[in-house]
Design goal:
Shape: globular
Structural class: alpha/beta
CATH class: Alpha Beta
Oligomer: single chain
Radius of gyration: 15 Å
Order of helices and strands: EHEHEHEHEHH
Strand content: 15-25%
Length: 160
């Protein structure tokens, strides 16, 4: 049996914190699908196609990782993909409270799919896509926060 997992998120943009979770999941599970979920309540900085491209570029060194986009419920998508689990990153206690609610609902929707939480490395515990966008908007360095391809994409976005 192949352990296929889903690592969901909006990845707007992908950060070193995201990449840390993806790389660590790729070491543990046979296959990781990074699933870009379309959140209708958010207005993303990057288009879906741009986010997919950035994720493909920063994960191209991982043979067992694929990038996909989807909408709808995570549990429906996981079932369609024959996934056995969901992998989520945690930065702080506040993340845990939110994730616990989501995981409880997901378990209600499909109790056969487990959720695994991975604590982010300490150096990324403060990091979020929102913080990165805010810093980049004012042309401050995000070199230590995102891969170089993402940094360049942010510079282009905010040069306009």
């Amino acid at each position: 049996m192949t352990n296929k997992v889903i690592c969901p998120g909006s990845f707007d943009p992908v950060t070193y914190g995201h990449l840390d979770i993806i790389e660590r999941a790729a070491k543990v599970f046979d296959h990781v699908t990074v699933a870009l979920f379309i959140n209708q309540s958010k207005t993303p900085l990057f288009t879906l196609e741009e986010r997919i491209s950035l994720l493909n570029q920063v994960t191209d060194h991982l043979d067992n990782v694929t990038i996909d986009a989807c909408s709808g419920l995570l549990m429906d998508y996981a079932k369609e993909q024959n996934a056995t689990a969901i992998v989520r990153g945690l930065r702080a206690v506040s993340d845990f409270e939110y994730e616990m609610q989501i995981t409880s609902m997901n378990r209600k929707l499909n109790e056969d799919i487990e959720t695994f939480f991975v604590m982010t490395k300490n150096e990324y515990s403060f990091l979020s896509s929102s913080i990165v966008k805010e810093v980049a908007k004012y042309h401050a360095s995000v070199t230590d926060l995102v891969p170089s391809v993402v940094e360049e994409a942010l510079k282009k976005k905010f040069a306009k």
